[in-house]
Amino acid sequence: MMFPKQTHARRKPKRKERGAINKKQYQLALDWFGDTCSICNGAPIEMHHVTFRSASGRGGFRNLMPLCKKHHMQAHQDANFADELRDMRYEAFGKLYYTDAYDLHDIGLIDEPTEQAFENYMNEMGKFR
């Protein structure tokens, strides 16, 4: 017996897509955090996922941090350093800094998984200063 294909107005992107950094989020991260290393002000920078993609960290600017190569490598090799970076983001944006609209929708915090609903929620929670 075949079931009809569900018609959804919006399908959740795959995990890989949700962790990817698009041009808009990259630019927002640069606008927010600057274009030098967040630790030493060095250049050039590499964009770092504060909560790793393997731990469901998304590609939104709140989860990104510009780091020089040295500090980027340290973030991936030194668990204590990585924890400090996550604590910095938690302080700045709250515990959901690494999520996206689909995460907030899945846990029932927003009605629709749209960028606007996500930003409205983050703004209401005072996590976008």
3D architecture notes:
- The chain is mainly alpha-helical.
- The chain has a domain at 18-98.
- Helices cover 43% and strands 6% of the residues.
- The protein has 6 helices and 2 strands.
- It has a two-stranded antiparallel ribbon.
- Helix 3 (69-77) packs across helix 4 (79-93).
- The radius of gyration is 16 Å and the shape is globular.
Q: Tags for this entry?
A:
mainly alpha, 6% strand, globular
Summarize the structure in short.
This protein has 129 residues and is mainly alpha-helical. The protein contains 6 helices and 2 strands; from the N terminus they run ααββαααα.
Write the layout of secondary structure elements.
Layout: H1 15-19, H2 23-33, E1 46-49, E2 64-67, H3 69-77, H4 79-93, H5 101-106, H6 115-124
Antiparallel strand pairs: 1-2
Helix pairs in contact: 3-4
Give the overall pLDDT as a whole number: 89
Based on the structure, what is the oligomeric state of the protein chains?
single chain
User: What low-confidence regions span 5 or more consecutive residues with pLDDT below 50?
Assistant: none
The ordered string of helix (H) and strand (E) elements is HHEEHHHH
Helical content band: 40-55%
Judged by helices, strands and strand pairing, the structural class is: mainly alpha
Spatial extent as radius of gyration: 16 Å
Portion of residues in beta strands equals 5-15%
